[in-house]
Write a structure and sequence with these properties.
With 389 residues, the chain is an alpha/beta fold. It has helices at 12-33, 40-53, 64-74, 92-98, 118-127, 149-159, 216-225, 247-280, 312-322, 352-360, 372-387; strands at 57-61, 82-85, 103-106, 134-138, 162-166, 174-176, 182-184, 191-195, 209-213, 230-232, 235-236, 287-288, 296-297, 303-307, 361-364. A hairpin with a 2-residue loop joins strand 10 and strand 11. Helix 2 (40-53) runs parallel beside helix 8 (247-280), helix 3 runs parallel beside helix 4 (92-98) and helix 8 (247-280) crosses helix 11. The chain is globular, with a radius of gyration of 21 Å. The structure holds pyridoxal-5'-phosphate. Pyridoxal-5'-phosphate (PLP) is lined by residues 63-65, 89-90, 92-93, 140, 166, 168-169, 195, 197, 207, 209.
């Protein structure tokens, strides 16, 4: 019998070994300077990340959830307004709407990609009884692959709705336009939100977030909102928040940003290994795995498979756990069925593709430092699980 391995879903410590010297050097400089709030690292990081993404303004904030919440407020979305979004995402996507007293309209996702279904978005924009009150759309580039940015841009122009891209999982992902141009996720929406939560592709050692935009006015508004709505210290134009990125996190993120393309390359390579192993072992009979498409660059924040037979997902998860392999379920319950959104009036059956995904998907270990040996072990164990059928 082969030896049991421990394979984590995500591991921050392996990466630290490689960047430790640089991290400690930058942190020492921060602590020595005594300048720990809104210092030079925050300014430089904002500049460097806006260059990386090719946008005019990058405004760092305390976390990705705030990046969304401040964006909704900066677009003047408020009580009586509606915002279209997906029920298959992290909670913060929809709470950003509700925290601004507006109402989410959920629409279902696409079967193979798990992203919001833009056909249905257009249908709602055309036929919803309150369609004139629909102010915005928050699409999510789920697991690291962009929604169709070309189509999103067309919807933005044709329906005059504002767009907030939720890029928490997608930094660096790209969409190729039919003209041959390409754009990064986070460059089409009016305001676009990123997260630097430690597990994200660009993750700090604590919380962090970012809003990006090419619109100067909106950028100024977000800059104000993150410091209690003050345009000048102690003079408040509106009620905002305390939502700043720490100097300490910025100092670390600057190092990681330099390596981001390398981290993404490694993730893509890991995804290709998984795909190849699954194919070789004939596992495509039992599971779907993320296929490669040449119109986008998927950055594999998560590598998510789905089982073809619903009954098997939880058993597979348990079997892998018994064999030392950690997996994740993103997400076990659609947002339309969350208790806190009961008042919105959705019920089971409203979004069948989302509901199916909550029962069939499983995220496998994925991070840049995952070894080929570990991946082979994961696939071998999945094969072993299905061999018993
Ligand atoms: C992580 C995440 C967020 C929130 O980011 P935090 O930094 O954890 O607040 C929002 N949306 C999605 C899709 C996410 O994955």
């Amino acid at each position: 019998m082969e030896e049991k391995m421990q394979v984590p879903l995500f591991d921050l410590t392996r990466q630290y070994k490689k960047i430790k010297k640089d991290v400690l050097k930058n942190l020492d400089a921060v602590f020595t300077s005594g300048n720990v709030i809104m210092g030079s690292n925050v300014k430089m990081f904002e500049k460097e990340v806006s260059n990386y993404l090719g946008v005019k303004n990058a405004i760092s904030v305390a976390n990705g959830s705030d990046a969304l919440r401040l964006s909704v407020q900066a677009l003047d979305i408020k009580k009586g307004d509606y915002v279209i979004t997906t029920p298959y995402t992290f909670f913060a996507t929809a709470s950003s709407i509700v925290l601004n007293q507006a109402t989410p309209i959920f629409v279902d996702i696409e079967e193979d990609f798990f992203n919001i279904d833009l056909d249905q978005v257009e249908k709602v924009l055309k036929t919803h009884p309150k369609k004139e009150r629909i102010k915005g759309i928050i699409p999510v580039h789920l697991f690291g692959k962009t929604v169709d940015l070309e189509r999103l841009e067309n919807i933005k122009n044709n329906y005059k709705v504002t767009i907030i891209e939720d890029c928490a999982q997608s930094i660096g992902s790209v969409w190729y336009y039919s003209s041959g141009d390409k754009k990064c996720s986070g460059t089409v929406g009016d305001l676009n939100a990123f997260s630097f939560f430690p597990t994200k592709n660009l993750g700090g050692y604590g919380d962090g977030g970012l809003v990006v935009t090419n619109n100067e006015k909106l950028a100024d508004r977000v800059r104000k909102l993150r410091v209690h709505g003050a345009s000048k210290k102690y003079y408040h134009d509106e009620v905002g928040y305390n939502s700043r990125l720490d100097e300490v996190q910025a100092a670390i993120l600057r190092i990681k940003l330099k390596n981001l393309d390398y981290y993404i390359e490694r993730r893509i390579q890991k995804a290709q290994y998984y795909n190849k192993f699954f194919e070789e072992k004939g596992l495509d009979k039992y599971i779907n795995y993320p296929k490669y498409f040449d119109n986008r660059v998927h950055v594999y924040h998560q590598y998510v498979i789905s089982v073809k037979n619903e009954e098997e997902r939880d058993k597979l998860k348990k079997f892998l756990k018994e064999n030392g392999i950690e997996t994740g379920i993103y997400y076990p319950l659609g947002l339309h069925l969350q208790k806190c959104f009961e008042n919105l009036g959705y019920k089971e059956g409203d979004f069948p593709i989302t509901e199916k995904a909550t029962r069939t998907t499983l995220a496998l270990p994925m991070f840049p430092e995952l070894t080929r040996y570990e991946q082979e072990y994961v696939v071998r164990k999945i094969k072993e699980f299905y061999a018993s059928f």
